[in-house]
Amino acid sequence: MLESNLPKHIAFSQRLASYIKYNLSDSTAQALTMGQLCQLGSDHSFSSDSQTTAISSTLLQYSPIQGDELLRQEIVNFHQNLNNHSRIVDANNAVTFCGAQEALSAIYQTVLSAGDEIVVMTPSYPSLVNMAKSMGVIVREIKLCTDNHWQVNIDDFNQVVNEKTQLIVLNSPHNPTGSIIDTELADKILKLAQYYQCYLLSDDVSQASNYHNLALAHSFLDYPKSIVVGVMSKSLGLAGVRIGWAVTPDMTLVQRIIAIKTVNSISCSKIDEKLASIALKNSTAILATNNQLILDNIELFSALIARHSNKLSWTPPQAGILALVEVKHITSIVTWSEKLAKQCGILALPSELFGLKGSYFRLGLGQESFANTLGLFEHFLLQSTA
Percent of the chain having pLDDT more than 90? Predict the structure, then answer.
């Protein structure tokens, strides 16, 4: 029988739900309203009026199992605009899911079996490790540490990737540290995967949150055994549009992933897929606004760190929406986080929920409400004698 326990980060949040009014650990960028999303279109061929008409005239039947074809083409275009793929992938190479979690689960079920080895950078989004362990898969961890600002290099991968490795899992910008895998390192990891002929999964849900214009492009989809995952909820901020996806050049793998989907959600919401198409078509405008907001919030938090350097320290994110913050001179980050929630209504997720011991919490930098939450948080710091 499968375990039915909630993931630790969700269980922690649920346990404190009655206290929580503000979220300092939100992993998403700022959301739009339905009206704001539909008004984004500016060209005559896809105006806001035509967007609204397209939604209102949508027949509420099943969406295709693989996903709406126009949406799948927008997904492929989105990734090709971010990256350096020389191989041509098209709508047939993409599969939509009800969020990135369902996509990741389908990929794991498709490429992994008990006894296989998987390589994951930790700390991590919990399911990247937990799903593998629940399947009897051996997890080889690349442990990030604050001493080198949470960075990885090719030597870290060379030490754990071998002929037994079935899958390398990458996540850049990284949840929860905000570190990156740049283009040069991505090329080296790709060559390593090709050498051992293992699968390569790139969790790219926050790749478009590249507000410093760093070299984050990769060419993973030129490798047949690669899979790229994306979602509406992170860089684009549209968590209420429950659409994630997987893209792979391997059409056999596409069919196997679809088969897994058919025993889970079967298909996605027709309306969500329509809204996702609108968002991706207008992603440049959405990302420009969200990325500027993240930059503004980084500046706000850097100023707070300067005012309270005796209590807090951090490495600002290189890209993405998240970072880890160290709380100094406390005995338990869990106790501290519970106190913050109960006294101020602020959720701050301890790093141990993501597999990292120590006095850290995950900081989310994508919300318009950040400045207000930060004011309440600073009041807590001033009053705290922890």
Answer: 90
Spatial distance between the Cα atoms of 24 and 370, rounded to a whole number of angstroms: 7
Are 112 and 199 a contacting pair, CB within 8 Å? no
Whole-angstrom distance, CA of residue 83 vs CA of residue 207:
10
CB-based burial of residue 194 (10 Å sphere; 0-12 exposed, 13-18 middle, 19+ buried)?
middle
87 is written with which tokens? Answer: 């191989």
Categorize the per-residue pLDDT at 2 as very low, low, confident or very high, splitting at 50, 70 and 90.
very low
Tens of pLDDT along 126-164? Answer: 999 999 999 999 999 999 999 999 999 999 999 999 999
Under DSSP, the state recorded for 248 is -
CA separation for the pair 103, 202 (Å, rounded): 12
Quick check: 90 and 76 in contact, CB under 8 A?
Answer: yes
Residue 7: count of CB within 10 angstroms of its CB: 14
Instruction: For residue 216, count other CB atoms closer than 10 A to its CB.
Output: 24
User: Is the whole model's pTM more than 0.90, yes or no?
Assistant: yes
d(CA 198, CA 71): 29
CA separation, residue 170 to residues 152, 201, 218, 221 (Å) = 11, 6, 12, 13
